[in-house]
Amino acid sequence: MDTLDLGQVKAVDQVGVEERVARLNSRSIKKESKIQALTLALSMVDLTTLAGMDTPGKVTQLCQKAKEPHAELPELPSVAAVCVYPNMVKVAQKALRGTDINIASVSTSFPSGMNTLEAKIEETQKVVRDGADEVDMVISRGEFLKGNYEYVYDEIVAIKEACGEAHLKVILETGELQTYENVRKASKLAMQAGADFIKTSTGKMSPAATQPVTLVMLEAIRDYYYNTDRMVGMKPAGGIRKAKQAIQYLILVKETLGSQWLTPDYFRFGASSLVNDLLMQIVKQKTGVYQSPDYFSND
Amino acid sequence: MDDEKQTADAETVEKGFKPSSPNSKLDFNGFWEYDDAPQSTDSVDIEEQYNLFIDGEFVSPTKGRYFESINPATEQSLTSFAEATKQDVDNAVEAARKAFEGSWSTISAKERGKYIFRLARLIKERAREFAILESMDGGKPIRESRDVDVPLAAAHFFYYAGWADKLEYAFPARKAEPLGVAGQIIPWNFPLLMLAWKIAPALATGNTVVLKPAESTSLTALKFAELCRDAGLPDGVVNIVTGAGQTGSQIVNHDDIDKIAFTGSTKVGKIIKKSLAGTDTKYTLELGGKGPNIIFEDAPIDQAVEGIINAIFFNQGHVCCAGSRLFVQEGIADEVIQKLRDRMETLIVGDPLDKNTDIGAINSEQQYNKINEYLEVGVNEGADMYQNSCELPEKGYYCRPTLFTNVSQSNKIVQEEIFGPVLTIQTFRTVEEGIEKANNTPYGLAGGVWTDKGSKIFNVSSNIRNGIVWANTYNKFDPTSPFGGYKESGEGREGGLHGLYPYVKLK
């Protein structure tokens, strides 16, 4: 972590950001590069279940799917991680034993973050003890919007410390940050506080991840890399359901940060329904026809 | 619980991240590459030879001479065009005069408008074909011909079609009368778009036209001639004569032409101006440029970098309003240059018909040689040259996007228009210095200002002597917006309401 210094957060021109995204969306991906992109995207998914009605059974089944997304194509990679609520970490841990799939848990009073720092630290320490490899924390948006940046920074520093060896993804909930400048500022703050990943959204509010917001965050990551030589990862989450969208996100990464970021170590999709569309498109690329959605498991 | 965790650890293959912070710059090559995505050319049909379009007919040139047109991306012959001599130009002007007097100036304005709307719709209908031909003939990437050239050309026809029966609102309390026959000479960088800029306002105001496209890019003009026939345009209203400079000068010096509209080099513009001095022929000249693009410290830098790319590498830099002189405020110069270099690494140079190509082929061998001479001049002048590392196709006229740093105002590459993907970069400290450097050029066509401060935009843009100043964007065109230059960049305006004025006499 650095010290907090938001002195030089750059202006962001909304029209320019959106034009850039539109231009990148016109890239044509076909044949080998399409299969490669689809497989890569699959390996970058954080397979997620974050519902009040989650059950151990559901989590276990999800972990099974994480290991082998589609039984007919055993050569496909497993997803990067399974993301669950804190009380399901042990279930996931048991189900994923012996695999290299990470366990991520939303900690810090997800999704609102409306709790005391002590409670958040305690929750984080608990999920790490239970076996989480990655912690997804939310920032206190209220304090951020108030301009209380020190508070938000200190909170991330404290949670990062509570994570120990586990990796920290900091959720900015960009849908609540109002402007691209705020997104950029929050990204910079989170990276300075020690975030291993910055993440767009909880997926619990709309708008969740968008491509322009992702581009702004990728540019913030690039600036941080230029200045510190430290690579921070990126995770758009929520609302990414289609393989086509996923490929568009990969293009944003490829042309903003380059190929070093095109790995699950530095880029993740927080999107569960995406997996089936990726599988369907992969099968289509291999066989030339679309299969019925019934051929792919729901979880 | 802890037992479980330990067991898990024991069994687990090595998990998690391998934090690597390689001490290198960003790497845009390797790993995931785009496959070729060529646009199919099945839907286009190129004849072996094209004739002149005079009085509604395709006619052979009187002397029977033809010249070859080369596809700059392959160096292969594409087709050949007729060379119009004095007799052909006379015939075309005569046809245009006849059509002017016989029908075009006397039919109702509403009726004229209908024809122009029809031309606009026909361009839209055949947009894909026009885009492909434009890319094959001129070397520009299909992404640009498809998304910029052709839609904008159609938009100009739509826009001016709307003015045809509303001229009394364009010039309130005046009666606008057409001039007669307009001789129009257009360049090779935007063949169809420049045709639209010239023909649409001329027709809307009731003039007839003799147009000469550039010799290296005549194809879409002759396809447009087909559209004129399909639209049922009266014979002789639009005439297209192909040929080189000689043909152009026959048009300029023709004594039955009422107006000359020229877009091209400043050198030729000066010759035209001299030969028209003392005559009552009206003229507009759209000439060269060496546009300043000024980036202030408070600018949205990532978007500004994108704007710099669009300003200089759009259409291989074959843009008279290109932002070819970059001025960066000194505090951010290193950052901007680093980001610019990284961004250049992602530019895809290659086959113009590939949908992923960002930079296509240089328009002709002659232009390719000229650009390379300037690169040599730049290096000899002591500037530092940086080019991106992409591979170029073996055949075809391709030039890597190029930056020159460590240059000064007195350098030739800073002073002269290169008309290629070549950018010079200088720094400045104060706003006044930026404006002064921006104005220190014989040209004055277009420029850009990048800052987060509205007041600075107004201050700088009103003090730069340019026909157009873009703020926080670059190379944006719209039919409603006038375009034209100060100083050696030209006289008169095209586009918008202003674009009607050069084609009318007001009573």
TrEMBL record, chain A:
GO terms for biological process: carbohydrate catabolic process; deoxyribonucleotide catabolic process. Signal peptide: none annotated. It is an enzyme of class 4 (lyase). Pathway: Carbohydrate degradation; 2-deoxy-D-ribose 1-phosphate degradation; D-glyceraldehyde 3-phosphate and acetaldehyde from 2-deoxy-alpha-D-ribose 1-phosphate: step 2/2. One of its GO terms (molecular function) is deoxyribose-phosphate aldolase activity. SMART domains: DeoC. Keywords: Lyase, Schiff base. It catalyses: 2-deoxy-D-ribose 5-phosphate = D-glyceraldehyde 3-phosphate + acetaldehyde. The keyword Lyase applies. It comes from Fodinibius salinus. InterPro entries: Aldolase_TIM, DeoC, DeoC/FbaB/LacD_aldolase. Transmembrane segments: none annotated. This is Deoxyribose-phosphate aldolase. NCBIfam families: deoC. Belongs to the DeoC/FbaB aldolase family. DeoC type 2 subfamily. Pfam families: DeoC (PF01791). GO terms for cellular component: cytoplasm. It comes from the Bacteria. Its EC number is 4.1.2.4.
UniProtKB/TrEMBL annotation, chain B:
Residues 1-24 are annotated as: Disordered. Residues 1-17 have a biased composition (Basic and acidic residues). Residues 59-507 form the Aldehyde dehydrogenase domain. GO terms for molecular function: oxidoreductase activity, acting on the aldehyde or oxo group of donors, NAD or NADP as acceptor. Keywords: Oxidoreductase. Belongs to the aldehyde dehydrogenase family. This is Aldehyde dehydrogenase (Acceptor). It comes from Fodinibius salinus.
